[in-house]
Amino acid sequence: MNNQPHIEVPTTRREFLAKSGGGFGAMALASLMGQSASAAPADPRSPKTTHFPAKAKNVIFLFMEGGPSHIDLFDPKPLLNELAGQKLPESFGKVILAMGENNAPLMRCPRKWKQHGESGLWVSDWFPEIATCADDLCVIRSCISDGINHSSGVCQMNTGHVIGGRPSLGAWATYGLGTENQDMPAFVVLTDGKGQPVNGSRNWGSGFMPAAYQGVQFKSGADPILNLNPPSHITPNRQKSKLDFLSQLDREHAAQREDFSELEARIKSYELAFRMQSAAPDIVDLSSESEETKQLYGIDQKETNVFGNNCLLARRLVENGVRFVQLYSGAGSGWDAHSNIEGNHGRLCKEVDKPIAGLLKDLKRRGLWDETLVIWGGEFGRTPMSEQGNGRDHNPTGFSMWMAGGAVPGGRTIGATDELGLKAVENPMHVHDLHATVMRVLGVDHTKLIYRHKGRPERIDMNEGKAELKVLGLG
């Protein structure tokens, strides 16, 4: 019999350092900070205080993936129709386009425009239902980004950078504020079932932060949470016994690897999944909603059923303490109208128009309006020049997004693009500014929300953005 003691060999460089000199340093640091080296880590999703009085506590981000055309939806340009068929005037300078049709002529906008509400906000006939909420919308007409293609554009609109690897906006919100419902994810993503968004789960990832802050993807349909319910032959007591035993093993394993945030996040996710088995079924079950409510969202119509379901589910999620909900329309660059923009946008606008208007109206009547910030937009807009004769190319130099709810004054426009809608010329708002503004509505000073990564004090805006107080009615 071999009586030699078992020696556990570190399997990673980090583990080796932690078990050698680094381990003693961690103990000394814990002593200096008045903390126990063996203390259990705090739940990273626990609720946190804000820097300012919060205008809102939840976010619903309606993401039109592919790039909706601002000059056909919220930013009318009469001169565009006057100059249709001509080349872009030389005064606009050289323009770099994603698909390279730099000499394409200007293409007219055939939409019928009308001013709506007491504010007289301009909305095209592609959004007749959203137009009924005109006095609730704060349209930002001067958005700009750096991503000229879908991968970089979607990545930046979600994470602040054109290259993947940074935490998403929802992850930052969860990191800064935590969540009120510990039985549900703090950050949920809903797609329309047409495909996987460009970049996939990196759009709602936690980047260099602990995995506990990443988004959880739900699918569309009657059973949105995969693998939620155990097999019928597994009784609740049997499952709990198994999970308790696994939890004991996980904790013993993690106790020797305190620097591995992934382990703690995974344990927390298992515990959350178990709690969700009790809490989630009622929250995601739409059968309890009245027929009138379902009709409000367009669930009774084929074209609007999927996005209507997702919008109604989003309302139920924020109503039950979920901090950040992101809905994708046209997952997989569906709004990308390089050709036949009339057919592309006409179909997609029909799919989302009534559900979005229903969501805004339902938030009001449920008492959720002031505490929920709704954001609409895509990764960029589209060009006034044509592509392939009847489409429009990507345009990150000037496009529209809007915000509503969250005590954001509506019936307004902020900023402007030039006379053809190509470039932002008044009060330009970069993606960094948009992210900083969203955090400000949530009561967070983005300059103080810092996560240290490899010795660097990282911020959501990469130290480049500022909150636009005009959105809050303070500028």
From TrEMBL:
The keyword Coiled coil applies. The keyword DNA-binding does not apply. Pfam families: DUF1501. Residues 246-273 form a coiled coil. SUPFAM superfamilies: Alkaline phosphatase-like. InterPro entries: Alkaline_phosphatase_core_sf, DUF1501, TAT_signal. Keywords: Coiled coil. This is DUF1501 domain-containing protein. It comes from Bremerella alba.
